[in-house]
Amino acid sequence: MKRNHWLTVRLSETESRKLKKNAATAMMSPSRYVRYVCVGREDMKLEPPDPTQLAQLLLLLKRTGNNLNQLTRYAHAGMLDERTTAALEEAIAETARAAGKATELVDSCERAVS
């Protein structure tokens, strides 16, 4: 559906924060959330994210967090050698991959409700 009509609304700082928070909770952009609330919810299908993807993402984030915690302990104990430094670099790369997957999942959820 082509959207060629604009609506400008002024919000207070509190209202803006609340709108953004509610939109994020619904995994929608603020524009999409306003349309969803104002125009009609029955016209818009909301599909929940794939539970399998969410479970895989959660597991990946937990593993990454555990790795980073262990490596942080080594760093604080002054035990950073080549092996630990390499493991730290891999944990950082794994964190970046997990963040990328989280972003992809959120984007796919937003596309599903658009």
Describe this structure in words.
The chain is mostly helical and 114 residues long. The protein contains 4 helices and no strands. The chain is elongated, with a radius of gyration of 20 Å. The model has no long low-confidence stretch (mean pLDDT 79).
Instruction: Report the biggest beta sheet as strand number plus sense, adding barrel if it closes.
Output: none
Oligomer: single chain
Uncertain regions spanning at least 5 consecutive residues? none
Helical proportion? over 70%
Give the overall average pLDDT: 79
Count of runs of 4 or more consecutive helical residues: 4
**Morphology call:** elongated
Number of strands: 0
The secondary-structure element order is: HHHH
Question: Which strand-content bin applies to the residues?
Answer: under 5%
Structural class: mainly alpha
Defining traits:
114 residues; mainly alpha; 4 helices
Tell me the layout of helices and strands.
Elements lengths: L12 H13 L4 H9 L12 H26 L5 H32 L1
Helix pairs in contact: 1-2, 3-4
Task: Give a concise summary.
The protein is an all-alpha fold. Helix content is 70%, strand content 0%. The chain is built from four helices and no strands.
